[in-house]
Write a structure and sequence with these properties.
The protein is an alpha/beta fold and 283 residues long. The chain has 11 helices and 8 strands. It has an 8-stranded parallel β-barrel.
Length: 283
């Protein structure tokens, strides 16, 4: 199994669409998008996640998006993690096998979204049966209970998963319950924070890796928070966090999280990645 040693900021990239009735994917703009992120100091991407509308893409589209991003990341010396979950089990297996074949740096996986696992043991069993199909690729779980309604105790799950899944690497923790998130932090694990609005207290608690949508739009604010925390400038870090949260609140006045953030990116970053697909809003 390859090692996953990445720490720091990873951008959950948007999936770009053309301006047609089917919102077909604009694969050609992905290399331009990647180069833009590089100019902002970003060296890692998450593909087909929540911000990337992964669950709204066909399996074939997810595979092609992965392939284009894989090639682009190789050309730009970037790390790539691919989200493979949020689909029927046979399709998740197909995506796991493809991720392994494509030699991505890591995979991230949502839980089963209909027959939801209700215990750490059931969640571990589900993920183990997927990880068997990408055994050489570092495997991460995507904890986002506000969307999945799967809210098992993460510290307990992590202890089980590390024993049962040989290529298990950690989790993306997208929850405001910082006390439980802090309990997940142990040597040998990578715990990505996915909650933009609590970056400052999360860093104080020990988080050192982050996958946050706002890194697409104003990564400099998150980077400034990290620098302030490292220099023990807590007051400035809190002020920058407040600025970031105010920008998030302003953006979210215009719709749901993914649609609003994608629109904000299009408006502020001089790249047109298109609107979002149904059932997300088109405001």
């Amino acid at each position: 199994m390859k090692k996953f040693l990445f720490k720091g900021f990873m951008v959950p990239v948007f999936t770009p669409y053309r301006d047609d009735k089917d919102k077909t994917i604009n694969y050609e703009i992905i290399p331009v998008y990647a180069k833009y992120l590089k100019t902002k100091g970003i060296d890692a991407v998450l593909v087909n996640g929540t911000s990337g509308e992964g669950t709204l893409l066909t399996v074939e589209e997810r595979i092609k998006v992965t392939d284009v991003w894989r090639k682009t990341c190789t050309e730009n010396d970037m790390i790539i993690m691919v989200q493979i979950g949020g689909a029927p089990f046979p399709d998740v297996v197909t995506l796991a096998r493809h991720a392994e074949q494509a030699a991505v740096d890591a995979v991230l996986c949502l839980p089963e979204l209909y027959f939801k696992p209700k215990s750490p043991e059931k969640l571990t069993e589900y993920l183990r049966n997927i990880a068997l199909h990408c055994p050489a690729t570092p495997f991460f779980y995507y904890h986002i209970p506000m969307f999945t309604d799967v809210n098992v105790h993460m510290p307990t799950f992590l202890n089980l998963a590390q024993k049962a899944i040989p290529n298990f690497g950690g989790i993306k923790y997208t929850s405001a319950e910082l006390d439980q998130g802090s309990s997940c932090l142990k040597p040998g694990r990578t715990i990505f924070l996915g909650a933009d609005s609590i970056l400052c207290p999360a860093v104080a608690a020990g988080f050192d890796s982050f996958i946050m949508t706002t890194l697409n739009i104003f990564p400099e604010l998150s980077m400034q928070i990290i620098d302030c925390m490292r220099n023990n400038n807590m007051e400035e870090a809190r002020q920058v966090q407040q600025e970031l949260n105010e920008k998030i609140s302003e953006i979210l006045q215009h719709g749901d999280w993914v649609t609003s953030m994608k629109n904000a990116f299009n408006e502020r970053c001089n790249l047109n990645l298109g609107k979002t697909r149904a059932p997300l809003s088109y405001n």
